[in-house]
Amino acid sequence: xxxxxxxxxxxxxxxxxxxxxxxxxxxxxxxxxxxxxxxxxxxxxxxxxxxxxxxxxxxxxxxxxxxxxxxxxxxxxxxxxxxxxxxxxxxxxxxxxxxxxxxxxxxxxxxxxxxxxxxxxxxxxxxxxxxxxxxxxxxxxxxxxxxxxxxxxxxxxxxxxxxxxxxxxxxxxxxxxxxxxxxxxxxxxxxxxxxxxxxxxxxxxxxxxxxxxxxxxxxxxxxxxxxxxxxxxxxxxxxxxxxxxxxxxxxxxxxxxxxx
Length: 260
Fold this sequence. Notes:
Number of helices: 5
Order of helices and strands: HEHEEEEEEHHHE
Strand content: 35-45%
Distance between the termini: 48 Å
Shape: elongated
Helix content: 25-40%
Largest sheet: 6 strands, antiparallel
């Protein structure tokens, strides 16, 4: 809908004042620094800082599970991912996986941060977490070789990681906005160490019998297969976590997140 307003040519000053007044009212809403939601606990940078972060962030991620409109944080459980592209290009596995319209479930509910190691002077945050279950359901396309065996297919996929240790390495950089100091993440590195991975790909080779045989082979050799693919999964999830984290970091001053 377009709204048109006509003013007499004898009123340019009135129009200018109206525009300036409107901008003056809007600008604080657009530019003002935000604070953490009231339900979030804050931690002071003292000798107890890393321990405090463990409790505060464990609480915060459960609060954010359903998302946050103010900071444009999407629902984290289930987390919808448009696509994941996973490449493994060296022997014994030469494989390309593309997963689309992926629903990631259980990741938040079954996660617990165990330890933080921080150096905010260097804008470095490292934490270790344990996640009981990460299930990825989506549409897949796959082609390549696994242990000299050709593999190809497309259809529905289910990839489930069980009892996974994850290291999160957040590498930030400072920036200033309106004279206020912020931190943004330039890298978010993730490394996965699951106790078990289950995989099921429908319609491999477009043949039910061959598909069943290859799925059995993948699960019998899951450690070899996943060890070649996990770097690709880590890079994809690192990009997702970085984007979500920066929706908070880029709006909230650093001193409002980590109290002095």
